[in-house]
Amino acid sequence: MQNDSVRDRLLAATLEIVASDGVDGVRHRRVAERAGVSLGSTSYHFSSREELLRETFLWYLHNANADLARLRHDRRAGTATARLVELIVALVHLETNNQPLVRAEYELMMYAGRDPALRQGLRDWEMAQRRQIADELRAAGGRRPEAGAATLVALVRGLELELLNHAPLTAAQLRDRVEPVVEALLSSRSSNS
């Protein structure tokens, strides 16, 4: 559908502006110019700047969940522990290889703190991430998969923030950072038995 295509272009353009100039840089005219559409298209699809920002964030969260599901699907070889390590490494690598996208994500997270509807959307996204990672922990034999998943999501967030101001790490360097945490989470399965 043409409208979906224009709408997606507007959302992508908004995300780019948030990445480069923050939430305060978002204006209908700038978004239309960046998307290569008429100014009237922004008003047609989004009645206000707040609606545009809200829909952009929800669109981003939907795509991020799809990325995590794809990464889970792509990592099926090896042991359950190795798959979990590779999943977390791939997730961090995906995020940190696109620093503008990470900046946009954190700008939008801060914006969500002031918008109850977005705050709920953010919580839902984080819970979906935790559920997917908890499933991987369960498959690896973790005794407390929900708590472990919360820890791994926090690890991903911490690495994202760290790497915004440092050179990206290779997959091997990320693996060296992630492996000990996963091993510690999984070692509790035998020490607590």
Residue share in β-strands: under 5%
* CATH architecture descriptor: Orthogonal Bundle
Count of helices? 9
Secondary structure class reads mainly alpha
The parts where pLDDT drops under 50 for at least 5 residues are 189-193
Largest sheet: none
Number of domains: 1
Shape: elongated
Distance between the amino and carboxyl termini: 56 Å
CATH class type: Mainly Alpha
Assigned CATH superfamily: Tetracycline Repressor, domain 2
Radius of gyration, rounded?
A: 19 Å
**CATH fold description:** Tetracycline Repressor, domain 2
Helix proportion: over 70%
Give the overall pLDDT as a whole number: 87
Strand count: 0
| String of helices and strands | HHHHHHHHH
How would you sum up this structure, described in words?
The chain has 193 residues and is mostly helical. The chain has a single domain (53-191), classed as Tetracycline Repressor, domain 2. Helices cover 81% and strands 0% of the residues. It has helices at 2-21, 28-35, 39-45, 49-74, 80-96, 99-112, 116-139, 145-164, 171-191. Residues 189-193 have low confidence and may be disordered.
